[in-house]
Design goal:
38% of the residues lie in helices and 15% in strands. The chain is an alpha/beta fold and 399 residues long. The strands form three sheets. Strands 4, 5, 7, 8, 9, 10, 11, 12, 13 and 14 form a ten-stranded mixed beta sheet that branches. A three-stranded antiparallel beta sheet has the order 1-2-3. The chain is globular. The model has no long low-confidence stretch (mean pLDDT 97). The structure holds magnesium ion. Magnesium ion is lined by residues 205, 207, 231-232, 257.
C-alpha cells in the first residue's frame, strides 16, 4: 500500500518583518509529515489560497513517493503556468515531499540528491550603513565574527544620496537618484576594499535599479575592486544586455532571484553570460527544478548562490542548505540573522559558526515547526512601502 497525501495544511506566520508561508503535507502514515517553504511575502494570501483551493483538492490521495510526477502535473494542471504565486504554491508541496522521502529513508535531502561534497556552506551576510565609514565598521564587525563573504550596501537599495528635486505634487514613494547611486556606491566599495584589505570577499546588489547602459558602466567601473559578485545588474526583462557587460569586463555576475520560467535562465547559463545563479527556490517551484537547474549550470561553469534573505522562511533556508551541501559547483549561500524566536518556532533551523552554515543530523530537511508558537504571530495586513520605488521626477520603477 503506498503512503498517500492525507491533508495539506498552510501555516502563515510572521515572527519578524517578513510574512512566511509554510506548507505541511500530512500523510496516511500516522505521524509522518513534511514541510515546505511557499513564501512569497508580498502576495502571501494569494499563495495560501492557491494551495488550499486549487492544489490540495488535486493532490489528496496521491502517492507521496511520486515527487517528479506530482511536480510536473502540478505545473501543467492549471494550464497557465510559470508565475510566482503558483510556483511558490507548488514549491511548498514539492519541498514537503522531499522532506517526507528523506524521513522515510532515514536520509537527509542532500543524501537523496547524491550526498555531501562539503561539510558546511560558506555564507554571506549583509552589511549596510548610512556612510562609507559606517559600512566599513559593519564589515569589520562581521569579519571579527568569522564571516568571509560580506555584501556591502549604503543607504539601502538605490542608496540615499544626491539631490532629489521632485516636481510639484510629487506622489509619495521610495525615491532614489540613479546617478548619485552609481557615484556613491563606487566610492563606498573602493573605500571598503582599501580599508579592509584584499582577503575578504565583497558583494554588491544593484537590485536592477539602473538603466542597462549605466549597469554596463558600473560593472566596468567596479572591476578593479574585485567583487565576489555583482548581483542583479540588470532586470530579468533586460537579460540580453548581459552580453554587453560580459564583453567589457570580468566582474563576476549573479542573477536570478526573480526568475520564474526556464526560458529566463537557459540562455544566460548556456552562453556563459553569468557566473552565479541566484534563484529563490520557492519562486522557481521547489527542490525538483532547483536540482535540475543546478546540474545544468554545473555543465557551463555557473555556480549556485541561492537566494536567502529574511523573506525565505527557515524551512526554505533548510532546503537551500541541503542543495548547497550536495552541489559540486556551489558558490556561496546568502544568510540572514535569525532571531531567537525564529529558532524557537523552527527547531532545527541551521546554525552558522565562523561563516559556515551547518546542517544537523536529522533526516529530510532537518527542520520542524512549533505550530502553536507560530500561531501567536499571525501575518499582518499591510501594503509594502519599499517596493513603491520612484525616480526623482516621480516615474515608477522596479524596486
Ligand atoms: Mg538580491
Amino acid at each position: 500500500m503506498p503512503i498517500t497525501i492525507d491533508d495539506i495544511k498552510v501555516i502563515l506566520t510572521q515572527p519578524g518583518k517578513s510574512r512566511l508561508c509554510i506548507v505541511k503535507v500530512i500523510t496516511s502514515e500516522p505521524g509522518l509529515y513534511g514541510l515546505g517553504c511557499a513564501t512569497f511575502t508580498q502576495r502571501i494570501f494569494a499563495v495560501a489560497t492557491a494551495i488550499e483551493r486549487h492544489l490540495k483538492p488535486f493532490l489528496l490521495g496521491r502517492d507521496v513517493d511520486r515527487i517528479e510526477e506530482i511536480w510536473r502535473m502540478s505545473m501543467v494542471h492549471g494550464y497557465w503556468r510559470n508565475g510566482p504565486v503558483l510556483n511558490n504554491a507548488i514549491s511548498g508541496v514539492d519541498q514537503a515531499l522531499w522532506d517526507i522521502k528523506g524521513k522515510r529513508a532515514g536520509m537527509s535531502v542532500c543524501d537523496l540528491l547524491g550526498g555531501k561534497v562539503r561539510e558546511a556552506a560558506h555564507v554571506y551576510v549583509h552589511a549596510d550603513g548610512g556612510s562609507k565609514e559606517e559600512v566599513v565598521d559593519n564589515v569589520r564587525a562581521y569579519m571579527e565574527r568569522g564571516f568571509r563573504y560580506i555584501r556591502v550596501q549604503m543607504g539601502g537599495y538605490g542608496g540615499q544620496g544626491g539631490q532629489l528635486i521632485k516636481p510639484l505634487n510629487a506622489p509619495a514613494g521610495a525615491y532614489f537618484n540613479p546617478r548619485a547611486y552609481c557615484r556613491d556606491m563606487l566610492e563606498m566599495i573602493a573605500h571598503v576594499r582599501e580599508q579592509v584589505g584584499a582577503e575578504v570577499e565583497l558583494l554588491h546588489d544593484i537590485h536592477e535599479r539602473l538603466a542597462p547602459i549605466h549597469a554596463v558602466q558600473f560593472a566596468k567601473d567596479v572591476e578593479p575592486f574585485r567583487l565576489f559578485f555583482l548581483e542583479d545588474a540588470l532586470a530579468p526583462e533586460d537579460i540580453h544586455w548581459f552580453r554587453h557587460i560580459r564583453g567589457q569586463c570580468a566582474t563576476p555576475l549573479a542573477m536570478g532571484e526573480l526568475f520564474n520560467n526556464p526560458q529566463e535562465w537557459q540562455l544566460l547559463i548556456q552562453e556563459r553570460l553569468i557566473d552565479f545563479i541566484r534563484m529563490h527556490i520557492s519562486q522557481m517551484g521547489g527542490i525538483t527544478p532547483a536540482r535540475n537547474v543546478a546540474i545544468f549550470a554545473d555543465l557551463y561553469g555557473a555556480r549556485t548562490a541561492w537566494h536567502g534573505p529574511s523573506d525565505t522562511s527557515p524551512v526554505g533556508h533548510a532546503a537551500n542548505l541541503q542543495l548547497d551541501l550536495w552541489h559540486p559547483n556551489f558558490g556561496v549561500q546568502e544568510w540572514y540573522q535569525p532571531s531567537d524566536l525564529d529558532y524557537a518556532i523552527f527547531p532545527g533551523l541551521p546554525i552558522v559558526d565562523a561563516g559556515y552554515l551547518y546542517p544537523n543530523d536529522e533526516p529530510g530537511l532537518g527542520i520542524d515547526i512549533d505550530e502553536r508558537l507560530a500561531a501567536k504571530y499571525p501575518c499582518q495586513d499591510f501594503v509594502e512601502e519599499w517596493t513603491q520605488t520612484r525616480l526623482p521626477d516621480g516615474t515608477p520603477v522596479r524596486p
